[in-house]
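FW: tagging you since you asked about this chain on Friday. Here's the raw sequence from the shared folder, copied in full. Didn't touch anything.
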Amino acid sequence: MGITASTPKDEQKIMDELSTYGAKWVSRDGGDKVSQTALFRKIVPKGEVDFSGPFLGHQLDGIFTSEKIVLPVVGGGYNSNHLFRDSQKETKIPVYSDENYTVMHPLGAPGLHLGEGHGSKASHLMIIRHSDGPITFNEMLPSNPEEIQDLENRIAVLNKVVTGMQDNVPLHTCGPKVVAKANELRIDGLTGIRDFLAKVIAQMPEEERLGRPGYKLMDKDNVDVSTDEAKVRVLLNDVYGNAALKPFMAIQPPSENSQLLSHIHCFMVEEVPECMVETYRDCTLILKHKKENMPNGEEVGGGMRAQSSEVMGAIAALDESEEEDEGCELSRQSTRLGGSD
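HL: got it, structure written out here
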């Protein structure tokens, strides 16, 4: 499966799943009248609290079915809203930020799903929203126009960050969260972003490295090199200096996700490994079909025709006045790398 040439089978699979998840979303009590943004802003807490009540009360257990979902807060303040709470704080391994988005190198075991022996694990990036505005649980669920635009913005930001990594741009051009981390670790602002990333990974405090979710970075020989700055730098230079590798931007569907804040993953690969085909969905294909099938758009593709009239009506209603109740400001956002001081 190539990362730049999708097949009709790939596209049909995503179309079918968008229809299925759309039906699940609108079948919940009141689900045909509320957007992802309105529900997220209404029920997802910023504090370390048990989320079981709202999760079950809004029937999200019929959508997010992974055994990895954690609702009570467990040791270290961890549950399935951990990523959302972290988005409001200092980022452990930032790569880029602006007024709306944070791009980070993830904690845990980055690149794990690429499979054993894969050499691109160091390239694993994630983008999340950290500000007010449109916000989503998962891109496989129905989106209103502002949420579709937000998806397009995030993909554009990731593309610019990948270019910045390939060019090893100075960290001071990569936004306030990167600059703040550099100041904390006394790293010069002219340091290249790849070199900065290697330093941050190698200097991670031991309690964070061994805690939850912890951190391990495996090389192609399945050896954790996360404490060796030189070896981490070699991994980063290998992936971002290889012109044959292209960014694959994808999400895991709700059946696979452990976190309830949408987070797009990015990996530098020649070809998507077979072990990822069933558990990741190409965000460029999701965006393509959502744009083509917007109820008020000029293009109406097969995806919308494949959906039930109930789902179509619900999607059309998602851009109504829900955001006014939640005080959300919805607008097109800048995607310029280094655009925020």
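FW: The chain has one domain: 8-324.
HL: agreed, and The longest helix spans residues 145-167.
FW: great, closing this out.
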